[in-house]
Design goal:
Family: Belongs to the universal stress protein A family.
Structural class: alpha/beta
CATH topology of the largest domain: Rossmann fold
Protein name: Universal stress protein
CATH architecture of the largest domain: 3-Layer(aba) Sandwich
Strand content: 15-25%
Pfam families: Usp
Shape: globular
Number of domains: 2
Amino acid sequence: MTEPIVVGITDAPAALRAVEWAVKRASAHRLPLKLIEVVGGAVGAIGEDEVIERAVAAARERVEATASALPRLGLKVYMRVDRGNPVAVLTDASAHASLLVIGSDHQDGSGGRRGAHGQRIAAGARCPVVVVPDVDVSKRSGVVVGVDGSPASEKAIAFAAAEADRLGEPLIAVAAWTPLEVPRNMAVYPAEYLENMEKLTAEALGLSLAGLRSRYPDLEIDRRVERGYPSQIINDLASSARLAVVGSHGRGALARFLLGSVSQDVLGRLATVTAVVR
């Protein structure tokens, strides 16, 4: 069986947006959908079993109601309600998923940093993770992808290009460059240094995008070379985009549960639906 798109279900509004996003992608790729809700927080207190049983029952009703409301159109839908640590359960489920989709756990609408669950899930997952905020992105345009020439970046480009082509949206490929910190005895940067930094970044961006045109002949590609910190530039562009895609540089057993600073910062100030690819 083709590996499904797994969606984490909660009672938050963003979870419904996550389901809506996942349904569209599952239908487009003819993939099954698996809805998972996890009841966590048990500590073994006396009288806790009854509370957990009611929470599990409510979760089962919510998952079944979500599934019954979906536009089937041949879509296979599976359901699962589990007890345990939501991060661990969803991370484990990602091992048998083509994509893991979760809603943002941001609550106060202030634009500040999001909670850590989404970052931990994205870091530990064994498949690409899409984090969906409680924001309507239907009137936005473009798929933003951060490019830095790394293997993780190449995978992010492949994911972003496929999504942009599927959606009929332009691919906005951005490479950021940051000059070295100016020594105290140097008032300004040499103009030649800045020009060469920009030129080298542009060349690297071109190499990373080579071959896309032959694979996606109708894809509009907007190349951006920007000076500044990558996550800030990506989020600025993502604020008007339908999707942002970043690569995660996982290395070793510990790094699987840590995100790189750029992807962590992008998720920390979620500006649009964001995919983390490793």
